[in-house]
């Protein structure tokens, strides 16, 4: 007897990827639905999602494909990219990523699936790695305080501009920029300056500040060192002259060059900015890369973005944490000094580890090698009669070839090398860590000259100015000297990863942050050389595969959101917000409505909304939130009438920040439109809408999306992210564009918001793959299961904790808020206590005290299976029982497992004088010893860290061993 025949076509399809991505299987979904009180996913979402926003049609997307099929399709796209040797430079360089770092950081889910280290006790490994990064930046720039990374060099320079305006004493509005600055940096600065009323003056600073400029009120100056042309010049006279005028000076510096050249700090700079891309991070067609900023101590508390600092835990042991968190946008809102709420942590870790691996001697060797290649290249050109634009340089040589520049660039391309056409008569050539002798031969041939590398090397002196050679020591901390062998480096990376909690350990139920599966299939193409080794300013015909992938992703995101056009240039959600608001601003101005500057924002909105609006030159007006968590429609109506002629835009998050589907959203949008305003729908919570509703169809004019949330790009410990902006057709002419790649945006665009034309292009294959693997129906089911998971948790926890807000049918959206304030009032147990106690149970805490103080916002996502959801609910219920023991007096309010959480292994040693047992402390609620996650430190004293700001590697003898 033969087995029942299964059609080959069915066997070929295998198990759909959807079943890999979505945690609860059909049986688990049935149990969850029974708990919630519905018979199917369709019944649940029909009840939860208001009819007025529901999409009538299914998503018009290609059908789901298998993992093997998607990888094959991506391979075809990758093969369409032509990877030539890049000698374009302009802030992007070839680099060798040490394989031990590639495999054990970039490709390791212990690093790339972690969340922002807001729970520092379970983020000590990541925080130490970021402290290494900050130390590298501080040492090389000669400035004492560095941040934990910014988005890229262009945005870092723009942040330096606004920092200079904020801390400087000059009341004028002129920001003076070196004409030899990177062209994309100048463009990003101009984009950011215009809505703030800052006048950007680009001038040749080689002979100092031009006459007549000083009288205009220069509050800040940006100097490039070395210049975009490659020139290395003495910049101290410009710095001194600027200081005499009262201006703040920022230096955009190449970190590799700074291993050989005098640091900006020693030359007197107030701020240094740049990128760490060439420290082992692939070019990736423009990103992601970790930008940097370092400042003088007196400006440390105004530094934008994140800073890792050193504090102490409950035992007095040294511990790391994010310092000065009160600067974050969720707290300061429209008064925030920046809208940057993220970083490029994964890339900063890679760059920092590159320095750890190579040490100061290795970095100097790489820099010397790079410079020698440039010097030999220049000598060969000079010997062949080619005139050079400058005779002091680090890695970049610019040649004057009247009338022949384009011809030479084309000839080099035929020889397999991309050069930079710097002007009609100028060709720029940059060397880097990967440059070879064959590359020099190919360049010489393009110029019609020949050269003998050995002979030229022997006869050619270095081309670095003797007066600018660096003499001070840097990277002296032992961490940069202890990990030379691969064995040592491997173990160091493992030790740090073991201290952290990431998605590879368990659930991270953060509301509003959507920590879900980042599938390995989606991640794999990121490190393919066809995607990783392409320069962002390479000729577009060499990036055919990339451009097709980008176009398809933009089109599919348009279909998902209901918008007409999407730009993927913004490399963070905050930058997507800014781009969307700049488009709204440009639209009103094009219509002659320059008075429309008011941005209405509900009080519950994400803090970056208000900060972005202020950066876009808008006046923020707050709309009240009603008791049920929805927008107070009466107050909104009143504000619309009050500001009718000035109304530019309403920014709302949907579903709301309180985790509910607001029933009045279509009416709200209609009221704003009737008054002449636009509607910005913050896409942070899009994971509750995909396949069910489209913001562009229920009233939105513009939204940013978070690909690092809904579309599976991993959070990377606090970055990378991508924040595309989608718009309806009337706003499309005002999307971002780029001066070096005309195809990257409309000619009428607002300018670039990121340094690279397509932002963080290297990680776009992740989201492209996710959409391709899931198909329209799979995406919809993912949304439905996300909504099911949140409601399941709400129903299980409701008997023990009040669920603060619900929408239609007493249901939540994809997240729920539980109210701890009554417990705190009755017991003294705080939201911090419960968050830290969850660590003892083996969990990352949900989002704390946002959007309501004293609450936890929980988002399970669709990727967590029923076993993990129940484990979390069981832990929360057990913690509720522990609170009762405090209320009853069985445990003192100041000595109980919650107050003392988290408990380390070290805390178990010696005398035990607590009224609860060691087992209660570390094995609560059935936690198994074999599966226990041990936090490396006890609760950290945040106030101590802010009072005693230490932001670089402290001496080892300060640590308790």
Please give a structural write-up.
Among the domains are: 126-304 and 352-356, 3-Layer(aba) Sandwich (Aspartate Aminotransferase, domain 2); 306-339 and 905-961, no CATH class; 551-772, 3-Layer(aba) Sandwich (Aspartate Aminotransferase, domain 2), CATH 3.40.640.10. The chain contains 31 helices and 25 strands. The strands form seven sheets. It has a seven-stranded mixed sheet, with helices on both faces. The protein has a four-stranded antiparallel sheet with strand order 11-12-15-14, with helices on one face. Strands 18-17-19-20 form a four-stranded parallel sheet, with helices on both faces. Helix 9 packs across helix 10 (183-193) and helix 22 (573-590) packs across helix 23 (607-615). The radius of gyration is 28 Å and the shape is globular. It starts with 7 loop residues before the first helix and ends in a 14-residue tail after the last helix. This is Glycine dehydrogenase (decarboxylating).
The CATH C-level class name of the domain at 551-772:
Alpha Beta
Largest sheet: 7 strands, mixed
What is the architecture of the domain at 551-772 at the second tier of CATH?
3-Layer(aba) Sandwich
Low-confidence blocks of residues: 956-961
What is the structure about, briefly put?
The protein has 961 residues and is an alpha/beta fold. It has 31 helices and 25 strands. The longest helix is centred in the middle third of the chain and has 39 residues, at 345-383.
């Amino acid at each position: 007897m033969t087995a029942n025949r299964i059609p080959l076509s069915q066997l070929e399809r295998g198990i759909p990827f959807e079943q890999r991505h979505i945690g609860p299987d059909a049986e688990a979904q049935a149990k969850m639905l029974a708990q919630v009180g519905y018979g199917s996913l369709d019944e649940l979402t029909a009840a939860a999602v208001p009819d007025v926003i529901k999409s009538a049609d299914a998503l018009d997307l290609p059908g789901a494909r298998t993992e093997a099929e998607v990888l094959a399709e991506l391979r075809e796209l990758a093969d369409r990219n032509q990877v030539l040797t890049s000698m374009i430079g302009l802030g992007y360089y070839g680099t060798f990523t040490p394989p031990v770092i590639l495999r054990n950081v970039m490709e390791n889910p212990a690093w790339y699936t972690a969340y922002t280290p807001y729970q520092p006790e379970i983020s000590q490994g990541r925080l130490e790695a970021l402290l290494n990064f900050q130390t590298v930046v501080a040492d090389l720039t000669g400035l004492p305080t560095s941040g934990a990374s910014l988005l890229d060099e262009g945005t870092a320079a723009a942040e330096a501009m606004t920092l200079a305006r904020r801390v400087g004493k000059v009341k004028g509005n002129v920001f003076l920029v070196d004409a030899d600055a990177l062209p994309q940096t100048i463009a990003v600065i101009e984009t950011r300056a215009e809505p703030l009323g800052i006048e950007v003056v680009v001038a040749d600073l080689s002979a100092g500040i031009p006459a007549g400029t000083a009288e205009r009120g220069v509050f800040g100056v940006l100097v490039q060192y070395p210049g975009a042309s490659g020139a290395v010049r003495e910049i101290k006279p410009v710095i001194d002259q600027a200081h005499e005028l009262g201006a703040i000076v920022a230096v955009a510096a190449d970190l590799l060059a700074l291993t050989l050249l005098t640091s900006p700090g020693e030359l007197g700079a107030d701020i240094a900015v740049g990128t760490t891309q060439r420290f082992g991070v692939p070019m990736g067609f423009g990103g992601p890369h970790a930008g940097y900023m370092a400042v003088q101590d007196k400006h440390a508390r105004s530094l934008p973005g994140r800073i890792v600092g050193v504090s102490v835990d409950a035992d007095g042991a040294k511990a790391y944490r994010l310092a000065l968190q009160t600067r974050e946008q969720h707290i300061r809102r429209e008064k925030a000094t920046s809208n940057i709420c993220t970083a490029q942590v994964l890339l900063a870790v890679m760059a920092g580890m590159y320095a750890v691996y190579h040490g100061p001697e290795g970095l100097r060797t790489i820099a010397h090698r790079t410079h020698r290649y440039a010097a030999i290249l220049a000598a060969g050109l000079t010997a062949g009669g080619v005139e050079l634009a400058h005779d002091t340089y680090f890695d970049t040589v610019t040649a004057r070839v009247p009338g022949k520049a384009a011809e030479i660039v084309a000839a080099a391309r035929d020889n397999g090398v991309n050069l930079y056409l710097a002007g009609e008569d100028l060709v720029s050539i940059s060397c880097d860590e990967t440059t070879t002798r064959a590359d020099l031969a190919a360049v010489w041939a393009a110029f019609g000259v020949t050269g003998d590398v050995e002979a030229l090397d022997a006869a050619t002196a270095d081309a670095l100015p003797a007066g600018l050679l660096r003499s001070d020591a840097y990277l002296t901390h032992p961490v940069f000297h202890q990990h030379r062998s691969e064995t040592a480096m491997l173990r160091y990376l493992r030790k740090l990863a073991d201290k952290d909690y990431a998605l590879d350990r368990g659930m991270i139920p953060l509301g509003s942050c959507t920590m879900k599966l980042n599938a390995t299939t989606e991640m794999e193409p990121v490190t393919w050389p066809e995607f990783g080794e392409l320069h962002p300013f390479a000729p577009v015909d060499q990036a055919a595969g990339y451009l097709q992938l980008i176009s398809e992703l933009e089109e599919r995101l348009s279909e998902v959101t209901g918008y007409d056009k999407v730009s993927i240039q913004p490399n963070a959600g905050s930058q997507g917000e800014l781009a969307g608001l700049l488009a709204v601003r440009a639209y009103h101005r094009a219509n002659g409505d320059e008075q429309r500057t008011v941005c209405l924002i509900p009080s519950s909105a994400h803090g970056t909304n208000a900060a972005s609006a202020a950066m876009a030159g808008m006046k923020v007006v707050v709309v009240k939130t009603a008791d049920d968590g929805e927008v107070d429609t009466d107050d909104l109506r009143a504000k619309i009438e009050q500001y009718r002629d000035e109304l530019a835009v309403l920014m709302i998050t949907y579903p709301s920040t309180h985790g509910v589907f607001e029933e009045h959203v279509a009416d709200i949008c209609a009221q704003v439109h009737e008054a002449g305003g636009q509607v910005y729908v913050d896409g942070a919570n899009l994971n509750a809408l995909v396949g069910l509703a489209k913001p562009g169809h229920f009233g939105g004019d513009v939204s940013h999306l978070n690909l690092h949330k809904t579309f599976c790009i991993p959070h990377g410990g606090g970055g990378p992210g991508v924040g595309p902006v989608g718009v309806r057709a009337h706003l499309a002419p005002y999307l971002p564009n780029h001066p070096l790649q005309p195809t990257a945006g409309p000619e009428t665009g607002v300018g670039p918001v990121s340094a690279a034309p397509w932002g963080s292009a290297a990680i776009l294959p992740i989201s492209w793959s996710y959409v391709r693997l899931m198909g329209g129906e799979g995406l919809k089911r993912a949304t439905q299961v996300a909504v099911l998971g949140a409601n399941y948790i709400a129903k299980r926890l409701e008997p023990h904790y009040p669920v603060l807000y619900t929408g239609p049918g007493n249901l939540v959206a994809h997240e729920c808020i539980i109210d701890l304030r009554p417990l705190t009032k009755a017991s003294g147990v705080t939201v911090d206590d419960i968050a830290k106690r969850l660590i003892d149970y083996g969990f990352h805490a949900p989002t704390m005290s946002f959007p309501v103080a004293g609450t936890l916002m929980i988002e399970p996502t669709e990727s967590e299976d029923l076993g993990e959801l129940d484990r979390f609910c069981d832990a929360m219920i057990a913690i509720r029982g522990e609170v009762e023991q405090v209320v009853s007096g069985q445990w003192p309010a100041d000595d109980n497992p919650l107050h003392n959480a988290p408990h380390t292994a070290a805390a178990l040693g010696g005398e035990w004088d607590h009224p609860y047992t060691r087992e209660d402390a570390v094995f609560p609620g059935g936690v198994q010893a074999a599966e226990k996650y041990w936090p490396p430190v006890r609760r950290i004293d945040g106030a101590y860290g802010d009072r005693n700001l230490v932001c670089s590697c402290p001496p080892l003898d300060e640590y308790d061993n």
